């Protein structure tokens, strides 16, 4: 039998241990003090070593970085947190181009935002910058801890955001075989090899005419160049295979995109199985739905490219967990 004094002692021990764990968790989640700006005297050189400027990096989707403005140093641009604004960074990435008009985060790093972790107004303020998904190309954004009220220099905070990796689509995503569809996002110029499987080996429309389908339901037939300037879609050469009588019965097709359209364009190529040479009604159809544009992953609401959707779900789950 455990005496009451022993139970009380054990209870105090457990509570103390839990408290220690909680304190440790809070400490481990505290932003590093090296990201706290120090306002320099007029004319002094700014450096990362003495914290008179801060350099941060975002290298993966779902990453959050922190920085702190000291007492008497409000964040600039004004209302950066509320309106999602930033300054362009100088070419060497060391300072903000504050003489230029602020830009919108949504234009350069879609989905990113600032959150005040602690502090308000001109008191010491810690700010978090969250990037749910990497932009198509690398970007630098700049914020400033203003030193004007203290007659000191501003402390620039330059955040470098990596561009998302190229060529994430894997072989399985680029093969259409049997009934179904494959959704692909093309976010920069390049070449894509599409495979029609053995169950549905024939391309539709006929590539010799330079046509593709378009529209959310892939039923409108148009010339490829009317939607994607200078793009080509051709049969991949089959050096090891005797030429087929019908060139569209080869299995591999090469889409070459030489430039990005101003707005995201959506095209379709179907891989079909025909009952015989005389019929035009396919027995089976597998459809490539391809969104082309620098922001294709966020703009192609009609298609929702599958190679991106799984990542997006994970990102939004992560975002929710970070802001709760």
From TrEMBL:
GO-annotated cellular components: membrane
Keyword Signal recorded: yes
InterPro entries: SRS_dom, SRS_dom_sf
Keywords, comma-separated and alphabetical: Signal
Signal sequence annotation: 1-29
Ranges for domain SRS: 36-160, 188-292
Pfam families named among the record's database cross-references: SAG
Name of protein: SAG-related sequence SRS39
Taxonomic lineage from the root: Eukaryota, Sar, Alveolata, Apicomplexa, Conoidasida
């Amino acid at each position: 039998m455990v005496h009451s004094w022993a139970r009380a002692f054990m209870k105090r021990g457990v509570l103390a241990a839990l408290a220690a764990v909680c304190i440790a968790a809070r400490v481990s989640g505290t932003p590093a003090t090296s990201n706290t700006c120090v306002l320099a005297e007029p004319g002094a050189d700014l450096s990362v070593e003495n914290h008179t400027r801060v350099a941060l990096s975002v290298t993966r989707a779902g990453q959050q970085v922190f920085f702190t403005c000291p007492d008497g140093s409000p964040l600039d641009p004004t209302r950066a947190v509320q309106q999602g604004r930033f300054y362009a960074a100088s070419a060497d990435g060391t300072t903000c181009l504050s003489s230029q008009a602020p830009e919108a985060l949504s234009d350069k790093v879609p989905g990113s935002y600032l959150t005040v972790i602690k502090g308000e107004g001109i008191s010491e303020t810690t700010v978090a910058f969250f990037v749910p998904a990497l932009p198509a190309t690398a970007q630098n954004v700049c914020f400033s801890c203003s030193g004007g009220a203290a007659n000191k220099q501003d402390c620039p905070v330059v955040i470098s955001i990596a561009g998302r990796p190229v060529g994430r689509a894997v072989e399985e995503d680029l093969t259409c075989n049997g009934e179904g569809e494959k959704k692909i996002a093309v976010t920069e110029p390049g070449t894509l090899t599409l495979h029609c499987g053995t169950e549905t080996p024939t391309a539709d429309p006929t590539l010799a005419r330079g046509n593709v389908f378009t529209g959310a339901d892939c039923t409108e037939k148009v010339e490829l160049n009317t939607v994607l300037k200078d793009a080509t879609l051709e049969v991949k050469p089959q050096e090891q295979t005797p030429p087929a009588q019908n060139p569209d019965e080869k299995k591999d097709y090469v889409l070459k995109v030489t430039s990005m359209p101003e707005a995201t364009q959506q095209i379709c190529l179907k891989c079909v199985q025909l009952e015989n040479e005389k019929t035009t009604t396919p027995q089976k159809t597998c459809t490539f739905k391809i969104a082309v544009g620098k922001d294709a992953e966020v703009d192609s609401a009609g298609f929702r490219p599958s190679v991106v959707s799984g990542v997006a779900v994970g990102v939004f789950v992560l975002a929710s967990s970070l802001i709760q």
